[in-house]
From TrEMBL:
One of its GO terms (biological process) is tRNA wobble uridine modification. Transmembrane segments: none annotated. PANTHER family: TRNA MODIFICATION GTPASE GTPBP3, TRNA MODIFICATION GTPASE GTPBP3, MITOCHONDRIAL. InterPro entries: GTP-bd_TrmE_N, MnmE_dom2, TrmE/GcvT-like. Residues 8-125 form the GTP-binding protein TrmE N-terminal domain. One of its GO terms (cellular component) is cytosol. Pfam families: TrmE_N. It comes from Blastopirellula marina. This is tRNA uridine-5-carboxymethylaminomethyl(34) synthesis GTPase MnmE.
């Protein structure tokens, strides 16, 4: 991965075709700038400050006006510890792709695979075993692998390793 970690990035982060709801995530200092020309907030917070916020919104995209919810997390409150926005709307893949394109026209770039998780790891939000578990959840083929990855994500491997480290340091 050769991307700059201070770029504002965007990607579809919800499941595949057929999902009722879809989610587009934008992360980086310019996250809000990437949506403010095509999303109208119905109940905007006084200012996006230090608290996370949710606003009902309308997205004007591909000649349509769509209801959506916009979630905003300021620095240190998001998965990546960067200002982040998630747009939750209808799960139509072409529609979500158009939202990504609109964000890119306004300064974002497409996130590389795993880039949100890389940023979370580098910001200390996840340890290495949890970052690997995120990939395992995404790539899981079957219930057994999914359960194993979810357990790892919940600290199934990190917790015993941290305990062993503490005991070794106390020797």
């Amino acid at each position: 991965m050769s991307a700059a970690l201070d770029d504002t990035i965007v990607a579809i982060v919800s499941g595949g075709n057929g999902a009722l709801r879809g989610v587009v995530r934008i992360s980086g200092e310019s996250a809000y700038d990437c949506v403010r020309t095509w999303i109208e907030l119905h109940d905007p917070p006084a200012a996006f400050g230090s608290a996370a916020a949710l606003s009902a919104a309308t997205a004007s995209i591909a000649g349509l006006r769509l209801a959506c919810d916009l979630y905003y997390w300021p620095n240190q409150r998001s998965y990546t510890r960067q200002p982040s926005i998630e747009i939750h709307t209808i799960g139509s893949r072409p529609l979500l792709e158009e939202m990504v394109a609109a964000a890119c026209r306004n300064g974002a770039r497409m996130a590389e695979p795993g880039e949100f998780t890389l940023r979370a790891f580098l910001a200390g939000r996840l340890d290495l075993t949890q970052a690997e578990a995120v990939l395992g959840v995404i790539d899981a083929e079957g219930d057994a692998r999914l359960k194993q990855s979810l357990a790892q994500l919940a600290g199934g491997l990190s917790t015993p390793l941290a305990d062993a480290r503490t005991k070794l340091l106390e020797l």
